[in-house]
Amino acid sequence: MRLIWTALVVVAVLAAGAPTAAPARAGGSSTGPAANAVARAQSASHVRGLTLTITPNPSVTAQPVSLTGRLSGSGVGGRRIVLWHRLTGERRFRPVRAVYTTPQGRYTLTQRAGQTIHNGAWYAQAQGRRSRVVSQRVQAVMTIADDNPVQQPGQPVRFSITVAPRHAGERVLLAQVVGPNAVHAIARVRLDGASHATVVQRFTAQGAMRIRAQLPGGRRNARSISPTVLVTVGYGIHQIKHIVVIMQENRSFDSYFGTYPGADGIPPGACAVDPATGQCVAPYHDTNDRNTGGPHGAAAAVADINGGKMDGFIGQAEQGRRCTTNDPSCSVCTTPGATGCLDVMGYHNAHELPNYWQYARNYVLQDHMFEPNASWSLPQHLYMVSEWSARCARTGDPASCANALQSPALTPDVAPPGSRPPDYPWTDMTYLLHGAGVSWGYYVFAGGEPDCANDASVTCSAPGQNAKTPGIWNPLPYFDTVRQDKQLGNIQSLKNFYVAAQNGSLPAVSWINPNNKVSEHPPGLVSAGQTYTTSLINAIMNGPDWSSTAIMLSWDDWGGFYDHVVPPTVDPNGYGLRVPGMVISPYAKTGAIDHQILSHDAYNKLIEDDFLAGQRLDPARDGRPDPRPDVRENVSGLGDLTNDFDFSQKPRPPMLLPAHPPPGM
Known about the structure:
By secondary structure, the chain is α/β, with parallel strands linked by helices. It contains eleven helices and 37 strands.
């Protein structure tokens, strides 16, 4: 296979606006006003230099390539640039195509996917100038597939490898990924005439292994690497190939499961003081579909906990009154002592939450799941993907970061007008996943954003949110590692998740976040959130990946609603107040209640144990030091989510529930 050449048509180049000169007679020369105009235009130009850049480089056979550059000097607009190319090993360059400069002297040539498939070199030529020669490295497209991703020790696994363009007769390496930039060689195999190879291996050590194929660099192509496949030997957590974190909004455990049988629910005699009346108000059954909740920033967390009395909820709702409902510091409680102020003491049960309670009855309910930070949504989402919330003094410098429980650098949707975009230079989970070749996706539901700046509010206007609009629910675009690893494309629309679930192509790790209508963040309807969550779970259960998936369902913070359990203190940031949590999986225990102390940190711990051989977001070990106060996954007392599974059982069939259920019992 070779470069697909585009014919070069040689044409005369005239200065912009100059008339076309008559062709010269045989044996003669061009004369007259037109020719003189051309000569004057050419003499008026003064070219100083010509540049050439190839992007990306190295490139991949199956992707387009852009050749860009600039002709510098005066009179450089409308000039003809000829691009020359040769393959590695060839002696002579050949002209490929001519393009013309913009008025500023810039030019671009785009090679479509598949036009350039081998290593080579380029240079540009114009006005008697030549750019430097730029080497282009082109990677082959490699695929690898296995026929038995889960097997017992000693069972054979057949790997099929293909390489394009053809590299018949060359050897490829089958290797295990053991670190961000390290592999362990397993076997070397020669490609057949169709550029295909098959190799059978038997593994005896139990655990999960990420396997890939590699083509050594050579004259025709640069070093090329296939995507990884996950092979699991033996039973245990590694039978889980897909972890899906569904994060909803603003509910305490007692507000959803405070009367669930067997759980650590609302105790007899529980109440919270209403400062307006002096009365201690008991939790009550709230049948309303729309709730108001209360403030839930860092100050509200301290006030709600009230030194362990757990009785500040009504007072916080009442203190948010004197403003309009669209102000970020508002509460809908406008009259202290009124019924609306007592909304934070309401709880729901199976009547309003039939599907949520049905999931709890059939899978695992966690009754000591705590928000990782005692604060609002942006810090919680930073913890969800990075195990820290910080503010940094210098762009790109993790060492300049300092702890920020309430006020990390704000995303543009909630920052004051004119503020600079935030920079999060500390290490996040995607850095570890990318380094180990583990796939991930961060899915955002298009629509209004489901929270307000600092969550001192109860209601607020909903700024627009989608997969391309960063916000407090989508902080990953501002992490340096995501940009540096070129992983921004993994942050995508929720519709892509439904497609992946249907096709059986879920990434290893998925985070899913809602919009305002389905988030359950007041004033969003409880029923709308339950319907949306049910649709997600049904999509997974209906897909090919259900048998190897674990769903983690939780709510990001307590939303100002009453809860009676005093949160443990593990460091200056948390834990925050208790929230509902569930594990839904074909391997989950049936109808179990997990009483372990947990936080959302346990999700990252499970991801690390399943896919990263126990590697942690540890600045002393991950190669990117930062001054975070601790390694949250290693905090003493944090429970182990593997206790919520029974891997000796056969995968349980899906339990599909109606998206719009009737009231439960």
